[in-house]
Amino acid sequence: MDDGDETPIEQLVRIASLRQEVAREEEVAVRRARLSGLSWAEIGLLLGVSKQAMHKKYRKVG
Length: 62
Description:
Layout: H1 8-35, H2 40-47, H3 51-58
Helix pairs in contact: 2-3
């Protein structure tokens, strides 16, 4: 979709929806990575954040 066809409100709503979708996908991927034996440091490296940030955000995942 061409961003010029959207109003600013429509664009922000679309972006918020995309963020929620990405967050859900990330949580599933992190859970799968942990179950397959990847460390917080490895996951953080792949996602471009520190292992501390990953552990804090997903400590309930395992």
